[in-house]
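Milestone M4 deliverable, item 7.
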Amino acid sequence: MTTVSWANRNARGGRRWLALAGFAAAAALAAAIGGLGVSGTAEEYQALRQPGWAPPSWLFGPVWSALYATIALAGWLVWRRTGFTTALWVWTAQLVLNAAWTPLFFGAGQYGLAFADIVAMWIAVVATIVLFWRVHRPAALLLVPYLAWVTYASALNLAIWQLNT
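Output delivered:
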Protein backbone atom coordinates (compact mmCIF):
# COMPACT_ATOMS: atom_id res chain seq x y z
CA MET A 1 0.00 0.00 0.00
CA THR A 2 1.41 3.36 -0.97
CA THR A 3 1.62 6.26 1.42
CA VAL A 4 -0.95 8.22 -0.60
CA SER A 5 -3.56 5.44 -0.59
CA TRP A 6 -3.01 4.84 3.13
CA ALA A 7 -3.47 8.56 3.84
CA ASN A 8 -6.66 8.71 1.74
CA ARG A 9 -8.05 5.61 3.42
CA ASN A 10 -7.18 6.95 6.87
CA ALA A 11 -8.83 10.32 6.09
CA ARG A 12 -12.00 8.57 4.88
CA GLY A 13 -12.05 6.47 8.05
CA GLY A 14 -11.70 9.59 10.19
CA ARG A 15 -14.57 11.27 8.34
CA ARG A 16 -16.74 8.20 8.84
CA TRP A 17 -16.30 8.32 12.60
CA LEU A 18 -16.82 12.06 12.62
CA ALA A 19 -20.06 11.52 10.69
CA LEU A 20 -21.17 8.92 13.25
CA ALA A 21 -20.55 11.50 15.95
CA GLY A 22 -22.67 13.93 13.91
CA PHE A 23 -25.57 11.48 13.72
CA ALA A 24 -25.25 10.84 17.46
CA ALA A 25 -25.24 14.60 18.04
CA ALA A 26 -28.40 14.99 15.92
CA ALA A 27 -30.20 12.35 17.98
CA ALA A 28 -28.93 13.91 21.22
CA LEU A 29 -30.07 17.33 20.01
CA ALA A 30 -33.57 15.97 19.34
CA ALA A 31 -33.63 14.58 22.87
CA ALA A 32 -32.33 17.85 24.32
CA ILE A 33 -34.80 20.00 22.37
CA GLY A 34 -37.56 17.71 23.56
CA GLY A 35 -36.53 18.42 27.12
CA LEU A 36 -35.91 22.17 26.81
CA GLY A 37 -38.13 24.14 29.08
CA VAL A 38 -39.84 20.99 30.29
CA SER A 39 -39.05 20.06 33.86
CA GLY A 40 -40.83 17.81 36.26
CA THR A 41 -42.09 15.48 33.55
CA ALA A 42 -41.92 12.43 35.84
CA GLU A 43 -44.10 14.17 38.42
CA GLU A 44 -46.50 15.46 35.76
CA TYR A 45 -46.71 12.00 34.18
CA GLN A 46 -47.49 10.41 37.55
CA ALA A 47 -50.19 13.01 38.25
CA LEU A 48 -52.07 12.17 35.02
CA ARG A 49 -54.91 9.69 34.89
CA GLN A 50 -53.40 6.75 33.04
CA PRO A 51 -54.48 3.39 31.72
CA GLY A 52 -53.47 0.35 33.77
CA TRP A 53 -50.91 -0.63 31.13
CA ALA A 54 -48.95 2.65 31.38
CA PRO A 55 -45.26 2.11 32.19
CA PRO A 56 -43.56 3.66 35.23
CA SER A 57 -41.89 7.00 34.56
CA TRP A 58 -38.39 5.64 35.29
CA LEU A 59 -38.61 3.39 32.20
CA PHE A 60 -38.67 6.22 29.66
CA GLY A 61 -35.06 7.38 30.14
CA PRO A 62 -33.37 4.02 29.50
CA VAL A 63 -35.70 3.14 26.62
CA TRP A 64 -35.20 6.46 24.86
CA SER A 65 -31.43 6.37 25.40
CA ALA A 66 -31.24 3.01 23.63
CA LEU A 67 -33.62 4.12 20.89
CA TYR A 68 -31.72 7.34 20.18
CA ALA A 69 -28.52 5.29 19.83
CA THR A 70 -30.15 2.97 17.27
CA ILE A 71 -31.72 5.92 15.43
CA ALA A 72 -28.29 7.55 15.09
CA LEU A 73 -26.57 4.32 14.05
CA ALA A 74 -29.23 3.53 11.44
CA GLY A 75 -28.95 7.00 9.92
CA TRP A 76 -25.17 6.76 9.80
CA LEU A 77 -25.24 3.34 8.13
CA VAL A 78 -27.51 4.64 5.37
CA TRP A 79 -25.43 7.79 4.97
CA ARG A 80 -22.32 5.65 4.46
CA ARG A 81 -24.03 3.88 1.58
CA THR A 82 -25.78 6.75 -0.19
CA GLY A 83 -24.84 10.06 1.32
CA PHE A 84 -27.58 12.47 2.34
CA THR A 85 -30.50 11.44 0.12
CA THR A 86 -34.30 11.36 0.44
CA ALA A 87 -34.08 8.54 2.99
CA LEU A 88 -32.10 10.76 5.34
CA TRP A 89 -34.40 13.72 4.81
CA VAL A 90 -37.27 11.52 5.99
CA TRP A 91 -35.05 10.32 8.88
CA THR A 92 -34.53 14.00 9.76
CA ALA A 93 -38.28 14.68 9.60
CA GLN A 94 -39.07 11.90 12.07
CA LEU A 95 -36.37 13.25 14.39
CA VAL A 96 -37.88 16.76 14.25
CA LEU A 97 -41.34 15.35 15.03
CA ASN A 98 -39.76 13.36 17.86
CA ALA A 99 -38.22 16.53 19.31
CA ALA A 100 -41.56 18.35 19.17
CA TRP A 101 -43.57 15.74 21.07
CA THR A 102 -42.33 16.32 24.65
CA PRO A 103 -42.87 20.10 24.61
CA LEU A 104 -46.34 19.58 23.16
CA PHE A 105 -47.36 16.89 25.63
CA PHE A 106 -45.64 18.02 28.83
CA GLY A 107 -44.67 21.64 28.21
CA ALA A 108 -47.95 22.79 26.68
CA GLY A 109 -50.26 20.06 27.98
CA GLN A 110 -51.66 19.75 24.46
CA TYR A 111 -52.40 16.02 24.48
CA GLY A 112 -54.43 16.13 21.26
CA LEU A 113 -51.78 18.09 19.38
CA ALA A 114 -49.13 15.77 20.81
CA PHE A 115 -51.17 12.82 19.52
CA ALA A 116 -51.29 14.37 16.02
CA ASP A 117 -47.52 14.86 16.22
CA ILE A 118 -46.85 11.27 17.29
CA VAL A 119 -49.10 9.91 14.52
CA ALA A 120 -47.11 11.97 12.00
CA MET A 121 -43.92 10.67 13.65
CA TRP A 122 -45.18 7.08 13.33
CA ILE A 123 -45.82 7.63 9.61
CA ALA A 124 -42.36 9.17 9.19
CA VAL A 125 -40.71 6.26 11.04
CA VAL A 126 -42.51 3.74 8.80
CA ALA A 127 -41.43 5.71 5.71
CA THR A 128 -37.86 5.83 7.04
CA ILE A 129 -37.84 2.06 7.55
CA VAL A 130 -39.17 1.47 4.02
CA LEU A 131 -36.58 3.81 2.48
CA PHE A 132 -33.75 2.39 4.62
CA TRP A 133 -34.78 -1.17 3.67
CA ARG A 134 -33.99 -0.35 0.03
CA VAL A 135 -30.52 0.89 0.96
CA HIS A 136 -29.32 -1.00 4.05
CA ARG A 137 -31.56 -3.67 5.58
CA PRO A 138 -29.75 -3.87 8.95
CA ALA A 139 -30.23 -0.11 9.32
CA ALA A 140 -33.96 -0.53 8.67
CA LEU A 141 -34.13 -3.35 11.22
CA LEU A 142 -32.43 -1.14 13.82
CA LEU A 143 -35.50 1.11 13.63
CA VAL A 144 -38.07 -1.64 14.29
CA PRO A 145 -37.85 -1.32 18.12
CA TYR A 146 -38.29 2.45 17.68
CA LEU A 147 -41.43 1.85 15.61
CA ALA A 148 -42.73 -0.57 18.25
CA TRP A 149 -42.14 1.98 21.02
CA VAL A 150 -43.72 4.84 19.03
CA THR A 151 -46.73 2.59 18.36
CA TYR A 152 -47.06 1.89 22.09
CA ALA A 153 -46.45 5.56 22.97
CA SER A 154 -49.13 6.60 20.46
CA ALA A 155 -51.69 4.37 22.14
CA LEU A 156 -50.59 5.68 25.54
CA ASN A 157 -50.82 9.30 24.34
CA LEU A 158 -54.34 8.68 23.02
CA ALA A 159 -55.45 6.97 26.25
CA ILE A 160 -54.05 9.77 28.43
CA TRP A 161 -55.67 12.37 26.22
CA GLN A 162 -59.03 10.63 26.58
CA LEU A 163 -58.67 10.12 30.34
CA ASN A 164 -57.57 13.69 31.06
CA THR A 165 -60.01 15.82 29.05
